[in-house]
Amino acid sequence: MLVPIVLTLCAITRIKGNASIERKFPSNFLLGAATSAYQIEGGWNADGKGESDWDYHLHKQPDIVQDFTNGDFAADSYHLYERDVEILKELGAKAYRFSISWTRILPDGTTNFINPHGIGYYGRLIDLLLANNILPLVTLYHWDLPIAFSNNGGWLNETTADRFGEYARIVFNAFGNKVKHWITVNEPSIHCSFMYEYGIHPPLNKSPGVGFYECGRNLLLAHAKAYHIYDMEFRKIQRGKVGLSLDAEWPIASSGSKDDLEAVKDYLAFNVGQYMDPIFKGDYPERLVNRIAAASRRQGFTKSRLQAFTDKQKAYINGTADFIGINHYFSLYVYRNASVRGMYEVPSFLDDTGLGTFQDPTWPQSAFTRMREYAPGLYSLLMYLKDTYHNPVVYVTENGFPTTPAEDLNDGKKANYLRAYLKAVLDAKANGSNCQGYFFWSLVDGLEWASGLQKYRFGLYQVDFNDPSRKRTARKSALVYKEIIRTGTIDFDYNPDPYGDRDKCFKNT
Ligand code: BGC
Questions:
Q1: Is 41 designated active site?
Q2: Residues with Cβ within 6 A of ligand 1?
Q3: Per residue in 61-97, pLDDT tens?
Q4: Pairing of strands 241-247, 250-253
Q5: Are 225 and 244 in contact, with CB atoms under 8 Å apart?
Q6: N or C: which terminus of the chain carries fewer CB neighbours within 10 A?
Q7: Burial of 18 (0-12, 13-18, 19+ CB in 10 A)
Q8: Could you tell me the residue range of the domain that residue 64 belongs to?
Q9: Residue 289 resides in a domain
Q10: pLDDT, tens digit, for every residue of 332-357?
Q11: Radius of gyration of the chain (CA)
Q12: Per-position DSSP letters for 53-71, written without gaps between them
């Protein structure tokens, strides 16, 4: 008996240092893929959909987007959702993360009119997913804000959080009997910085060091509002879970110096703690509060540019996550020395952090300058969340690596990235992380926001944007992912040629 037992153990475990590393994903681990409404749906005004800030601004000023494309048609998932589900089925995906377009459900953003066609569309998508045993993980807000609210101060206006709560109630009511995993908002940090810190996303309002914090604060209040509405009105019957997705890179100290180690802590406080701490610890991290207050004083502001939460708000936000979604793409080295002073605009978020960053040029490079492969970063991030926030349930709700259009279907670098990062997830799980799912970004190519449709190919499936039928074709990464999902392992010897293997793996492409 000894031999088979030893062999079995060898097949599923490997010893790394003194930790025993589980080499297989448990069958209930959600391996899936993710998308968002504006990036793939198209149908921007189909069947009574109202205008979002993205619709409005990209029509009015097309040069916001590098290649002058927009989301009017995108991957046309509004009409091709059946094909998207077919793709998920081909992959063997266990779950799909997608977002609901607020103005498809509520055309003017308010509850004055509920669009039956919007309800119908998402209802059909959800039913089809469930019929194929694919679990829907639904994001309520992935950056497309009703234009009326955008014009009324957007996320700088606290009342937008109230409107968000009303929208959430309609969606919970419509789909909560079928959807059991809700993500309220996607990436407050990136979203707020692109809107208000750098002014490169609608409403193109650049107010460095001010709007970013205000926006993040209101998004936390919006998230908490939706959470409480679910808790009080729906949870008992629907029995679902509510969380939010945060973007988090992993910072590595560039030396063991005290300054660099402090810089790492500050990086985490500004980028992760700013959102995690109010939810998991009841208030902003002290080092975030202190740094912004000190900088504001130096700059002659009469009060801190980071507005404190009232005690009532603290209590309202505290404890409002049944799970946490993590969107992780890359890592960076951080440092702090004299050269950082004067490096950034004053005031600004980066100046407040008071640190510099760089990447290791030997890390494999994606089509996107800042996105390089360094999978141990995801491992460290998952362990940090475990140790800092009492081991919450975590889903990696985004992780991806854009290839270039020239790489076409042969996106081997993306496939390598996928395997490396899934290995990091397995390692973290083996060391106690409560990570329960992983969603590759993205299922199909889509509009990469202000970078447009053409430049970055995030999709496991290529979308031919020159073809009116928006044909989807499996890339090499899709074939590799299919094998990972099928076997539950990453340690197999499979390096497919997408042209040779496609027919074998995917009947429908
Ligand atoms: C966003 C996605 C985006 C991805 C790649 C994330 O910040 O949630 O919408 O496409 O990064 O840049």
A1: no
A2: 36, 39, 186-187, 190, 247, 327, 398, 441, 448
A3: 999 999 999 999 999 999 999 999 999 999 999 999 9
A4: unpaired
A5: no
A6: N
A7: exposed
A8: 30-505
A9: yes
A10: 999 999 999 999 999 999 999 999 99
A11: 22
A12: HHHHHHHH-GGGSTTS--T
